[in-house]
Amino acid sequence: MTIIDERKGEFIKAIDFLKTDITSLRTGRATPALVEDIKVESYGTKQSLKSVASITVSDAKTLAVDPWDKSLMQVIENAIRNSDIGISPVNDGKVIRLPLPDLTADRRQELIKVLHKKLENTRITIRKIREDIRGEIDRAAKEKDINGDERYGFQDELDTLTKEYNEQIKKIGEEKEKEITTI
Predict the structure, then answer these.
(1) Is 164 exposed, middle or buried (0-12, 13-18, 19+ CB in 10 A)?
(2) Phi, psi of 90 (to 5 degrees)
(3) 3-23+104-181: which CATH topology?
(4) pLDDT for the residue 161
(5) Beta-carbon contacts of residue 133 (< 8 Å; ≥ 6 apart)
(6) Domain locations along the chain
(7) How far is CA 101 from CA 60, 85, 86, 124, 143, in A?
(8) Of 82, 80, 41, 43, which Cα lies nearest the Cα of 63?
(9) Is residue 60 a contact partner of residue 29, using CB atoms and an 8 Å limit?
(10) Rounded distance, CA 114 to CA 159, Å?
(11) How far apart are CA 25 and CA 35, in angstroms?
(12) Which of 33, 48, 114, 142 is the most exposed, having the fewest neighbouring CB atoms within 10 Å of its CB?
């Protein structure tokens, strides 16, 4: 197993985190991922909404949040209202409905800016991982654990791998941006 193989999982984790992170960017379609990670104060601790209620899609523009403990209705409603997702909850006493408003052109542009920031943060993470691995390769060469040819081979392999993950980031970003701009 090479130095690169041992650390490849870090690249994969960065990409997986990006995919999870951008699911909360609203695209006009209702999806539980929009609200499932909102923090709710319940039983003295902060928990994610998905751990205190079931979240379902009623139709393309509406989510329904059904708390398992009905005494949390007001707390959940307030948590959703105070989050930065821009949805006004409707509490009917049994279920909290979340009608998604249509996205304005300005809001779409804001979401695209947020998306680009998240993409850049992931690129930075990939570069940091690359530099850490490059440092390990250089140390191994200095300590004569690998020879010069292996060193350059590992560096080429690392650059190729980094380029592949940056292409994945670009592709993920393009797909999400298309989702956001599609009306």
Answers:
(1) exposed
(2) -120, 115
(3) Topoisomerase I; Chain A, domain 4 (1.10.132)
(4) 93
(5) 3, 4, 7, 158
(6) 3-23+104-181, 32-99
(7) 11, 11, 9, 34, 61
(8) 80
(9) yes
(10) 27
(11) 10
(12) 142
Encoded tokens for 10: 């870090």
Across the chain, which has 183 residues, the per-10-residue mean pLDDT values are: 82 90 72 82 86 85 87 86 80 86 79 89 94 90 84 90 94 89 73
Residue 151 contacts by C-beta under 8 Å, 6 or more apart in sequence? 137, 138, 140, 141
Q: Give the architecture-level CATH label for domain 32-99.
A: 2-Layer Sandwich (3.30)
> For residue 103, how far is the Cα from the chain centroid?
20
Q: Token match 């804001």: residue?
A: 110
Asked whether the beta carbons of 32 and 87 are under 8 A apart, the reply is no
Give the C-alpha distances (Å, rounded to integers) separating 176 from 31, 84, 85, 92, 103.
Answer: 14, 19, 17, 33, 15
The identity of residue 115, as a single letter, is L
Q: Tell me, what's the pLDDT at 146? A: 83
